[in-house]
């Protein structure tokens, strides 16, 4: 029995050869050529390409910061049992930020100065937190520094309009909540890193003119006071 021969254009060999041609590098390179990598000059710089020694002012918009911090508070609030626990967790999160802020500030100081200076007295260190740390984190300085009249180991940093409190709506049943516990954690981390261990808390101290006024209370450890007395001798 004779079988009909397939048409030459539909033969297996012709199909195989055509498929091989399509898969060959010479044929595919013409149809599916990959564009050459862009040069480094034309590539857009990312945040990792920025210099750590030359900071930019207002890198993050206030609305983006407020949204992120609001989500942070809501996320933490769902996992706590009370106001004290919520403030403690916000303080812990702020402490983690404070360690990185101090590391970055020390790096910039050592890179920009041939003779970098480290504060060994408490008051100059507190002034640097009031100005440099506040400006690095919030884009502005704090409003005042006060010393307790009753207790020699207590100092206060006053912020009349803290950015972390600006867009936070606290319910009436949680009126004692201070979201600036996050800021208190930052201050505590910086003080610990500079060698001034202390317990830092935040308290709402509103006034008629400044309803969001917050006081960051710093209670120094006994070892810090003893060292300060040695410097005065």
UniProtKB/TrEMBL annotation:
Keywords assigned: Endoplasmic reticulum, ER-Golgi transport, Golgi apparatus, Transport
Signal peptide as annotated in the record: none
Positions in coiled-coil regions: none
Tagged with keyword Transport: yes
Entry's localization field: Endoplasmic reticulum; Golgi apparatus, cis-Golgi network
Keyword match Endoplasmic reticulum: yes
Entry GO CC: endoplasmic reticulum; TRAPPI protein complex; TRAPPII protein complex; TRAPPIII protein complex
Primary location recorded for the protein, binned into one broad class: endoplasmic reticulum
GO BP term (any one): endoplasmic reticulum to Golgi vesicle-mediated transport
Family stated for the protein in its record: Belongs to the TRAPP small subunits family. BET3 subfamily.
Assembly mode: Part of the multisubunit TRAPP (transport protein particle) complex.
Protein name: Trafficking protein particle complex subunit
Organism encoding this protein: Fistulina hepatica ATCC 64428
């Amino acid at each position: 029995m004779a079988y009909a021969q397939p048409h030459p254009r539909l033969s297996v060999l012709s199909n195989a050869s055509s498929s091989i041609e399509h898969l060959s590098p010479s044929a595919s390179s013409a149809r599916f050529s990959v564009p050459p990598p862009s040069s480094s000059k034309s590539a857009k710089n990312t945040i990792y390409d920025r210099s750590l020694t030359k900071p930019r002012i207002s890198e993050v918009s206030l609305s983006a910061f407020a949204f992120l911090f609001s989500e942070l508070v809501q996320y933490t609030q769902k996992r706590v049992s009370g106001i004290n626990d919520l403030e403690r967790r916000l303080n812990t999160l702020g402490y983690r930020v404070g360690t990185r802020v101090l590391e970055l500030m020390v790096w910039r100081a050592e890179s920009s100065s041939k003779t970098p200076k480290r504060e060994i007295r408490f008051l100059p260190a507190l002034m640097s937190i009031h100005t440099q740390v506040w400006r690095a984190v919030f884009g502005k300085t704090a409003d005042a520094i006060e010393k307790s009249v009753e207790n020699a180991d207590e100092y206060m940093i006053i912020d009349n309009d803290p950015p972390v409190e600006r867009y936070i709506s606290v319910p009436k049943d949680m009126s004692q909540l201070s979201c600036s516990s996050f800021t208190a954690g930052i201050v505590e981390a910086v003080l610990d890193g500079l060698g001034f261990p202390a317990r830092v808390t935040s308290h709402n101290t509103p006034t008629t003119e400044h309803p969001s006024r917050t006081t960051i209370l710093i209670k120094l450890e006994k070892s810090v006071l003893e060292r300060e007395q040695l410097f005065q001798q």
